[in-house]
Write a structure and sequence with these properties.
heterodimer, A: 578 residues, mainly alpha, MetI-like fold, two-stranded antiparallel ribbon, 23 helices, B: 434 residues, alpha/beta, Rossmann fold, 6-stranded mixed β-sheet, 4-stranded antiparallel β-sheet, 16 helices, 16 strands, 43% helix, globular
Chain lengths: 578, 434
């Protein structure tokens, strides 16, 4: 006789309106108003946009900040969509994989800011005379700064789903659809969210750079914090720059508290390592969601969607798994056809690019671009070395003090997220006032935003050094330089390399905005590949833009393959404490 | 009603392709049947392909030849009436106990209230009441495996496959789970008709199974079949129980008669360069020699006795014993281990003398060690890259086995000071730091 079932996961009783319910309602309403406000004006025409130019009145900043962060959000959604499709395809299809993964690897190394000048023309032509086209271009620029590493992380997670869980889900007859949502996506969630945070950090930099776009004669100024800054630079208004920095700090703080903190805390349950005892991440916003009816509503909605969608897909039992000989032959043929098509396509693309570049570029141009690339390379390496000399000791010192580390770590992550280009004007105005050599003094701008990656990775590394190892050092009386050489540096080395790789990649990208700077009508320029690309963009010289991007990509790829990757695998092999 | 066996496995062969080309025979000519109401044990050592066989039955992979039929139907993919319990539990860490148990029913597309009712019933049956909302990471190993059982039972399978379900648990927990399972089984409370249990624990097999099939290693073949007709509950100290354990030890240390000559050289590792060496540390080798040499064994011991005193299972003990046999420090047969003269000398010797003895036997009886030493002696530089030997080994075995074999010979070579190895450069050499 079937007993009535006690509903276990449904919370019973309690008041209808709790404190958390009220907060939740207010927040939801706030988000709705924000979306409505921020998306107003997307349908405008460019002419209308010019009628209401960006103004430096701080009262406009909330709206600008809202527009900027909406662009970020749109790009993030686009990146997620890309991640779920592209990476899944690459992980599930052997044929797609051979093409898609190297492509992703290359795309990761292409300087995004160089992209912008090319894509903006394309998107403007999609919606001529409308703001929408320019918005698309800006969003696409942010998307290109976010999507690749997210897709890569998702792909890697899909490839490393534990065998026994795959077997269990097959054994219990889960359909492919169900397996994707119940096993693969949850498994991939924690690294994906971590990568989303990293992407977001990088994204702020590019959103600021992509709002005031001018390619040749086309100039578009989308309302936002980036345009506000550009105008402030033009008018040499330091106070306005201060306002913009304040607004940006606030926006990042809100994103952190309302989006990423809750996400990280929520994703904690998807961690695969089943150890207990580590304090789970905490977020007040998530607590609020969970304690209000909103959380129950969302949970119910997702539960229903998952049940409904999996009931649509009929589980297939006894599907024939044995490949026949004939089928094998067909598969092999398809393989060959696919590879041939891929090779043909690649050859075509190469030929087209070469033809395009060679039409407007001579050998001496290529030589010049390479020389400038070398100049930028020297800059990046010197800066990484200087930043390391400063932040490694500091990071170790902080990391060995747990109380200190727990305060410093979020600050360092926050600083990494802060778009350093907002600070450029302050530095540039200083250089102008003191008449310093731009070739030297513009360089630090490249690493201004990326040095924090070194700091927080070193802090993380130092705080994971087992206390027993440190005790042994103390016990044996290891001090001074020997202590650094034998204990501290080896222990943090793998973490340091991770940070330095991120910092180096980011600096190359930043060089496009850092090697050229202006303050009012004073223009400063450092000799380098970044400046070369920036100038070509301003002049609308597409041949040089493509050449500059190609050379920079080549530099980044070669440095990654020849230097960072071997260093990383060496560090992993030799120094990882596991 | 159904007639005939629950499960019928006929002339199964399983071959794994090797990455460098070629094939590896894992299972050869396997025939077995599972009748209703029976617990069938598959007993063998690592590499005997018993887990592979279980996955074939579960429909998770396909045999190269032969057929598997379940209730008269050929198994070509995961079948609804066959459920599995995994060694590593294989729980979804992001689902709580109840959700983990419900998952299999959701896949069947049952209505929500039916899912909930059956899941709670299964949780109740397996003794997980009160843990419904706990996440796997909050549970002890024993509780996790109970979830594994509940998840398998909730789909009401006809056949339950168990892949070393207790081997990741500590001794006490494993015993409790076994007893609970057997109680439920003999009271007829489980919704299953037959069980296939894979294990390398001899006592566990005798404790639980009605019939035990003993597998040989590489390739896996069924060496012998032993019927266990003792009534449940069985007791380890029961003389008839001990007798069965002894009988299985003898069966596992003696090769089948028909293929004795051929498989002797196959079975005892170290006879050719191409045989897989077990990764057994020299400390364990010395430890076993000392134990057998000491009181009360004085040079000859019964393997089951040694196993239970040292709390070792077949998978731990056999590789050590066999390595000693390969090095001619001991002889194995009829369930006994007997030290040779050299073995006794080794037990009595001091550190340096032991190393000298070990070196002589290593270079004398392990062809791979011999081969490495000869290559190093012949080369002017007295160095050779690891990849050179790996490539050679991979002609005979999988890359993982080659890696393991080389790791084993490196440790023995280092202990014997027969050659040295630089891990960073991945090269063998003849230097020894002074």
């Amino acid at each position: 006789m079937p007993q009535p079932v006690p509903p276990i996961s449904v919370r019973k009783g309690g008041r209808i309106l709790t404190f958390w319910n009220i907060v939740a309602v207010l927040l939801v309403l706030g988000v709705l108003v924000f979306l409505a406000e921020a998306s107003r004006g997307v349908g405008q025409t460019l002419a209308e946009l010019r009628m209401t130019p960006v103004s430096l009145d701080p009262a406009n900043l909330p709206e600008y900040a809202a527009r900027t962060s909406l662009r970020m959000l749109a790009a993030m959604l686009l990146s997620l969509l890309f991640t779920f499709t592209y990476a899944t395809w690459a992980a599930k299809s052997r044929r797609a994989e051979v093409l898609l993964i190297p492509l992703l690897d290359i795309l990761q190394s292409v300087p995004i800011l160089g992209f912008l000048s090319i894509t903006v023309v394309f998107f403007m032509s999609l919606a001529p005379g409308k703001v929408l086209g320019a918005e698309f271009a800006a969003i696409f620029a942010i998307f290109t700064s976010q999507a690749w590493n997210m897709a890569f992380s998702f792909y890697q997670s899909l490839r490393t789903v534990p065998d026994e869980l795959v077997e269990a889900s097959r054994c219990f007859g889960l359909s492919g659809w169900m397996r994707f949502w119940r096993l693969e996506v949850p498994f991939a969630m924690p690294p994906l969210i971590w990568n989303m945070m990293m992407s977001m950090s990088g994204g702020w930099f590019f959103v600021v750079a992509s709002e005031a776009i001018s390619v040749g004669d086309t100039t578009v100024t989308l309302p936002g914090i980036g345009s506000y800054i550009a105008l402030a630079i033009q008018q040499r208004d330091l106070a306005a720059i201060g306002w913009a920095i304040g607004a940006m700090l606030l926006v990042i703080l809100i994103y952190d508290q309302l989006l990423f903190r809750p996400l990280v805390a929520w994703a904690d349950r998807f961690r695969f390592e089943q150890e207990a005892g580590v304090a789970p991440p905490h977020s007040w916003a998530l607590t609020m969601l969970r304690r209000s009816w909103l959380g129950a509503l969302l949970e119910g909605l997702f539960g229903f969607a998952s049940r409904w969608s999996s009931s649509r897909v009929v589980p297939r039992h006894n599907n024939p798994g044995r490949a026949r000989a004939g089928q094998d032959r067909v598969t092999r043929w398809l393989d060959h056809a696919w590879y041939a098509a891929a090779i043909a396509l690649t050859a075509l693309a190469f030929w087209k690019t070469a033809a395009f570049v060679s039409a407007g570029v001579s050998v001496s141009d290529v030589k010049e671009a390479i020389q400038l690339g070398l100049a930028t390379m020297v800059r990046v390496f010197v800066l990484i070395a200087i930043a390391s000399a400063i932040w490694v000791p500091v990071g170790v010192w902080i990391g060995l003090r747990p109380g200190m580390a727990s305060i410093a770590q979020p600050i360092a992550q926050f600083l990494a997220a802060f778009p350093a280009n907002l600070l450029f004007p302050i530095v540039v105005s200083g250089i102008v006032a003191l008449r310093l050599n731009p070739n030297i003094w513009l360089s630090p701008l490249m690493i201004l935003g990326t040095q924090w990656y070194i700091l927080f990775n070193v802090v993380a590394g130092a705080s994971t050094v087992p206390s027993e190892l440190r005790d042994v050092g103390t016990n044996l009386g290891v001090r001074g330089w020997t202590w650094w050489r034998k204990i501290a540096l080896p222990a943090i080395f793998p973490f340091y390399v991770t940070g330095a790789i991120t910092a180096s990649g980011g600096s190359w990208n930043a060089s496009i905005v850092a090697e050229v700077a202006s303050w009012g009508d004073t223009h400063l320029e450092a000799k380098g590949l970044g400046a070369y690309i920036a100038q070509a963009t301003e002049a609308g010289d597409y041949h040089r833009i493509v050449l500059g991007i190609a050379v920079m990509s080549a530099f980044v790829i070669i440095i990654n393959r020849a230097f960072w990757r071997p260093l990383y695998s060496y560090a992993e092999r030799k120094f990882r404490l596991s | 009603m159904e007639t005939g066996p629950l499960l019928d496995v006929r002339s199964i062969r399983k071959i794994f392709p090797k990455p460098g080309g070629g094939e590896l025979l894992v299972l050869d000519d396997i025939n077995l049947r599972v009748e209703e109401g029976e617990i069938l044990g598959l007993l063998g050592r690592t590499g005997s392909g018993k887990s592979t066989l279980l996955r074939l039955i579960a429909g998770l992979s396909q045999p190269a030849a032969g057929s598997i039929s379940y209730l008269g139907q050929t198994v070509t993919g995961p079948a609804p009436g066959i459920a599995m319990v995994f060694q590593s539990f294989a729980l979804f860490p992001w689902l709580n106990v109840l959700e983990n148990v419900e998952l299999g029913l959701e896949a069947l597309g049952l209505p929500p209230h039916e899912i909930r009712r059956r899941s709670l019933a299964a949780i109740d049956l397996i003794g997980l009441d009160g843990f419904e909302s706990a996440y796997p990471r909050e549970l002890s190993g024993g509780m996790r495996q109970r979830v594994g059982f509940a998840r398998a039972l909730v789909v009401h399978p006809n056949i339950l496959l168990m892949d070393e379900p207790f081997s990741a648990l500590d001794v006490l927990t494993a015993e409790t789970l076994r007893t609970d399972f057997l109680d439920l089984w003999s009271e007829g409370q489980l919704p299953i008709k037959g069980v296939v249990l894979v294990t390398h624990n001899i006592e566990e097999a005798v404790l639980m199974c009605d019939r035990i099939l003993i597998f040989s290693t590489s390739p896996g073949r069924i060496m012998s079949e032993i019927k266990v007709s003792l009534l449940q509950p069985r007791h380890r100290l029961d003389p008839r129980f001990r007798e069965l354990v002894e009988q299985i030890y003898v069966a596992m240390t003696t090769q089948p008669s028909g293929q004795a000559r051929l498989s002797r050289s196959e079975h005892f590792p170290g006879r050719g360069i191409g045989s897989v060496l077990p990764q057994v540390s020299t400390n364990r080798l010395s430890g076993l020699v000392e134990t057998v040499a000491g009181a009360p064994y004085s040079g000859k011991a019964d393997l089951p006795v040694i196993a239970s005193t040292l709390q070792k299972e077949v998978d731990d003990l056999f590789p050590i014993a066999e390595t000693l046999q390969m090095l001619r420090f001991a002889d194995i047969g009829g369930g006994d281990i007997r030290l040779t003269e050299a073995g006794t000398a080794f037990a009595d010797a001091e550190m340096d003398e032991r190393k000298r003895l070990f070196r002589r036997h290593l270079l004398g009886y392990v062809p791979l060690a011999q081969h490495i030493r000869r290559v190093l002696d012949e080369r002017a530089s007295h160095t050779a890259p690891k990849s050179r030997f790996l490539d050679e080994l991979e002609d005979y075995m999988t890359p993982e086995a080659a890696e393991q074999t080389l790791r084993a010979v490196i440790e023995w070579g280092r202990y014997a000071e027969a050659f040295a190895y630089d891990d960073e450069m991945a090269t063998f050499n003849l230097e020894n730091p002074a």
